[in-house]
Amino acid sequence: MMYFSSPTTIFVFVSVCLAAAESNTTYPQAKPALAVNFPDPALVSVDGVWLAFATAGNGRNVQVAASASFSEHSWRLLEDVDVLPDPGPWAANDRNIWAPHVYGLEDGRWVMYYAATVKNETSKHCVGAALSTNVLGPYSPVKTPFACPLDDGGAIDPAAFRDPKDGNLYVVYKVDGNSMNPGGGPCGSGGLPQDYRPTPILLQQIEEDGVTRIGEPIEVLDRDEADGVLVEAPSLFYSESQELYFMTFSSNCYSTEHYDISFAFSEHLTMPFTKSSYPLITTQTGPVTAPGGADMTPDGKFALFHGTVGQYESGEPIRHMFAAEAMQMGTDMSAWPIR
């Protein structure tokens, strides 16, 4: 394992306003890019249009939003689009699709990775893949899961990444070990910390068809005591100025104010990543409550993420989408909400 001295990379999110919450609690916020429940957004740019894909909601397995300009608050929900009507024969038909990620393949097709509840084992999710000739689908699911380590808790939060150094294609995802933690509680945090299971982030190389795995996945990150019950929501980008790979990820439980966005770095994509000694953005530093589920563009210049703005009567958080612009200068990086 390679270790590096603490980086001087700094992520700064500046609060610009307060947004009203959708519950009895008031949550300080930056201005949301999309003021609807839209968790775990993932970015793709197509023919000058930005698209974001998100966790199930609004009667769809996968939500989609679009904007002609990333730098303006012009995102709109595409309510008439049903990109993944069928998650596949292995998945439960319960509209419980999490954290989809879409990637354009070299042959002109599009692949969508997503986490779906496993049929006959609905306490766990696995990662599926689906293909389409149109970025807005409909996507046809592969008949078997892409990654399904049920004995370790299942798998969630997939994201594609092409290594700019050698052109190889990868999918990074989380093994959902906390789904098997004893004691219940939010995200499996009800038991003793020493009983928390690993939640490793795995990197899987794939063929150009987007669905065929090459070899076995490689562990590049895992939770430690500072991360609480889990790490999840990995997103990779390569910084040419620093000649380093960066991974953003979330720690702690999404339904608590301890949820955050952190980052790690590595000189080599397939080697373990070293975590920064400080998180990227937290509830305490603002301007978003329980920030998480960030997705960076491949060049690290833009990001989408969600933040909690209230609660439903069920207690589940209402999570709006926020946008940020990022800039690298030597070994430093700053990022701020789009105004």
TrEMBL record:
GO BP term, pick one: carbohydrate metabolic process
Keywords: Glycosidase, Hydrolase, Signal
Important for catalytic activity, responsible for pKa modulation of the active site Glu and correct orientation of both the proton donor and substrate (site feature) positions: 157
Active-site residues (renumbered): 40 (proton acceptor), 232 (proton donor)
Keyword Transmembrane helix: no
Keyword Manganese carried by entry: no
UniProt cross-references to InterPro entries, sorted A to Z: Glyco_hydro_43, Glyco_hydro_beta-prop_sf, Glycosyl_Hydrlase_43
GO molecular function, one term: hydrolase activity, hydrolyzing O-glycosyl compounds
Family, similarity comment: Belongs to the glycosyl hydrolase 43 family.
The protein's name in its UniProt record: Glycoside hydrolase family 43 protein
